[in-house]
Structures are given as C-alpha cells and as structure tokens.
C-alpha cells in the first residue's frame, strides 16, 4: 500500500481538531524514495499554527500505524495562501464582502464584491467597466458548478 492523496485526505479529515476546520487540498508527490505530502486546511475563522501542528502530529501517527515507523516522507500542513484559489463553499463564506475574480466554465470572467454565499452558489455584485465611464455594479448569481477558478482580489489601495 502506498501513500496516496486519497488515503492521506482520509487521515487528514480524521485528524481535524475542530468541527469548523476542513481540508482544502491534499497532494502527494510521485517520488517513491521520499514523497512530499502537502495538506492545506482552513476554517471559517481561518486556521492557527497550533491547529496545523495538531493535524500534522495526528497524520504522522496514522502514517506510522499504517505503514510502520520506517516510512520516509515529508509532511507539510498549512493554510492555503492568498494566491490559492477558493475551492470549498466554506472558503467563500469567509470572504464575504471581499472582491473576487471568478473564471466560469464558458471561459468568461466576472470580478466583483462577494455579497452572499448560498447553498447553490455565489451572489456577486459584478463590476462592469465601460471605457470613458464610471464603473457600474450589477448583481449576478453564479452556481458553484459554473465556477472553474475563483480568487480573492488583493487591493493595495
């Protein structure tokens, strides 16, 4: 049995110290000698270093129990960075009120302020720019199934 993203995800979910935390992404490198395991976790209020350390210790323990103490690997548990796309509905809730850039299945992009997250998708106040005119704002509903990629727009104004 090898380390796979699927079995590491199961271990990571079982290792969450708090019900408000969730797993965003799990990756396992193809290296057979010493695979690198990356676990990204987040929470409705963010995630602390202590919570990441707890998850890491618990995953380490489960790997040792399943694969033995001699298994060689590198484990990294952290929160997704600002540049990491939003992938989970829980992540969107935390960013209500912030600007998002959303790429859709049809190839179009929408940028605007996230007003609300519903069970089925996002309510966005889309910024519509016209050359020589002031930007206008139009309410748009975007189903989760239509989203290819969504990122928080960082403003330094």
Question: Which features does this protein show?
Answer:
8 strands; alpha+beta; five-stranded antiparallel beta sheet; 22% helix; 157 residues; three-stranded mixed beta sheet; 3 helices
According to DSSP, the number of beta strands is: 8
Strand order of the largest sheet: 7-6-5-4-8
Beta content: 35-45%
Largest beta-sheet characterization: 5 strands, antiparallel
Arithmetic mean pLDDT: 91
Oligomer: single chain
Helix fraction by DSSP (H/I, runs of at least 4): 10-25%
Order of helices and strands: HEEHEHEEEEE
**Poorly predicted runs of 5 or more residues:** none
* Structural class determined from secondary elements: alpha+beta
Shape: elongated
Using the CA coordinates, give the radius of gyration.
19 Å
Number of H- or I-type helical stretches: 3
Task: Please provide a written account of the structure.
By secondary structure, this protein is of the alpha+beta class. The chain has three helices and eight strands. The strands form two sheets. Strands 7-6-5-4-8 form a five-stranded antiparallel sheet. Strands 1-2-3 form a three-stranded mixed sheet. A hairpin with a 3-residue loop joins strand 5 and strand 6 (121-128). The longest helix has 19 residues, at 49-67. It is elongated. The chain starts with a helix and ends in a 5-residue tail after the last strand. The mean pLDDT is 91.
């Amino acid at each position: 049995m090898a380390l796979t993203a699927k079995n590491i995800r199961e271990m990571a979910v079982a290792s969450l110290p708090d019900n408000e935390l969730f797993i965003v992404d799990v990756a396992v490198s193809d290296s057979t000698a010493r695979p690198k395991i990356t676990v990204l976790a987040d929470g409705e209020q963010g995630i602390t270093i202590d919570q990441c350390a707890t998850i890491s210790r618990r995953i380490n323990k489960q790997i040792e129990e399943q694969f033995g103490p001699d298994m060689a690997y590198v484990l990294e548990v952290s929160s997704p960075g600002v540049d990491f796309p939003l992938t989970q509905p829980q992540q969107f809730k935390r960013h209500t009120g912030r600007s998002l850039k959303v790429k859709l299945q049809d190839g179009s992009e929408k940028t605007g302020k996230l007003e609300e997250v519903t069970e089925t998708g996002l309510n966005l106040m889309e910024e519509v720019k016209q050359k020589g005119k002031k930007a206008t704002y139009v309410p748009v509903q975007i189903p989760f199934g239509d989203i290819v990629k969504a990122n928080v727009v960082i403003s330094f104004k």
